[in-house]
Amino acid sequence: MPQSCHDSDLRINFLTEISPHEVSWDEHRSDAESVKILYNYSVELSKYAERINACSGILKFGVNPDQGKLVLKQAFFCRVRHCPVCQWRRSLLWRAVMFQQLPSIQERFPTHRWVFLTLTVKNPPVTELRDTLKHMNDSWQRLIQTKRFKSGVAGFLRTTEVTRGNDGDMMAHPHFHALLLVKPSYFKGQGYIKQADWVEMWAKALRADYLPSVNVKAVKATLDEKGRKQLDKAICETLKYSVKPSDLALERDKGAWLHEMTKQVHKMRFIATGGVLKGILKPEDEITTEEMISSSEEVQ
Q1: Nearest-CA neighbor of 201 among 186, 190, 211?
Q2: Which long-range contacts link 96-105 to residues 24+ away (Cβ below 8 Å)?
Q3: What are phi and psi of 37, to 5 degrees?
Q4: 276 with 109: CB under 8 angstroms?
Q5: Which of 28, 113, 157, 196 is 20 to 30 A from 92 via CA?
Q6: For 232, phi and psi rounded to 5 degrees?
Q7: CA-closest candidate to residue 227, choices 108, 106, 118, 119
Q8: d(CA 47, CA 51)
Q9: Mean pLDDT of 161-175
Q10: Which DSSP symbol is given to 110?
């Protein structure tokens, strides 16, 4: 059974040496090496560096007899929240579960449609990230209790993403991505919520004295291939990384932003479901190593 990734006995340093089309493992493992180095700059967080160092060092693959492709069979994952490899594996699992659930959702709600919503706030200093996220979560609860939301939205899948703010090295840009399953009435007459309305509703929920940036778009999830691709894209965008790998691995500040962000979001959950989609995905701290292995992308 082939092995890959940093196995010195086999003199294989990169998975692409076995499978030239597979770059995901190598890219994420490279980012993990950078994050490990940055965590080592902090005495308090160096324990994460030790765990990341051992993450996915040896991968064991087997051949899928039906397709003749390599699939992951055995691996050790460090389960550090901001390890780029583990973050990627969790994302793959969530996406796989959503794709598996789609047929039953569409069978139960054949006339419902999907809307992709992104909600932002003013960028806070990363030292205020925890308080900002708590405020955003409270504001989301106020939003989903409004009459307009409840009358049009049957269920939701919402994730939190944090990136570096573009207005300073120690600034953060937290935002929500939400995939909304909306009722047929949403796109009819008074039921339709325009972008300007979403801005007003979110500002009111935030109790903000400014108009936050909001992006909303209907997902044309028709039964043909083009429609399916649009829905797949919306799912992948919603269930991508919680923190951009390039932001995690940025070395110019010797990990100052990463260290503070790690402390600020400790034990905060970044995924929420509600309505008819409630419980469709596991929170990240409940995902098992076995599930992270089984969510493997096939190696070309």
Answers
A1: 211
A2: 96/295, 97/280, 97/281, 97/282, 98/157, 98/235, 98/239, 98/280, 98/281, 99/232, 99/235, 101/280, 102/231, 105/181, 105/276, 105/277
A3: -60, -40
A4: yes
A5: 113
A6: -60, -40
A7: 106
A8: 7
A9: 96
A10: T
Element (H, E) at 273: strand 271-275
Residue 36 resides in a domain: yes
Residue 300 lies in a domain: no
d(CA 185, CA 183): 5
**Counts for the chain of helices (H) and strands (E), in that order:** 10, 8
Q: Which run of H or E residues covers position 264?
A: helix 256-264
Write out the residue range of the structural domain in which residue 148 sits. Answer: 3-294
Domains held by the chain: number: 1
Dist. CA 201–CA 144, nearest whole Å: 10
Q: Would strands 172-182 and 3-4 be described as parallel, antiparallel, or unpaired?
A: unpaired
Mean pLDDT rounded to a whole number for the chain? 85
**Cα 227 from Cα 114, distance rounded (Å):** 11
d(CA 281, CA 100): 11
Segment 136-141 long-range contacts (CB within 8 Å, at least 24 positions apart) = 136/160, 136/174, 136/176, 136/206, 139/202, 139/205, 139/206, 139/207, 140/176, 140/205, 140/272
Integer Cα distance of 33 and 31 in angstroms = 5
Residue 51 lies in a domain: yes
What is the rounded CA–CA span in Å between residue 209 and residue 160?
22
- Count Cβ atoms below 10 Å from residue 126 Cβ, excluding itself: 27
Whole-number pLDDT of residue 143: 99
Q: Confidence class of residue 19 from pLDDT cuts 50, 70 and 90?
A: very low
Distance CA 175, CA 246 (A): 17
| Number of Cβ within a 10 Å radius of residue 147 | 7
Q: Does residue 299 fall inside a structural domain?
A: no
- The one-letter code for the residue type at 1 is M
Q: Give this prediction's pTM.
A: 0.84
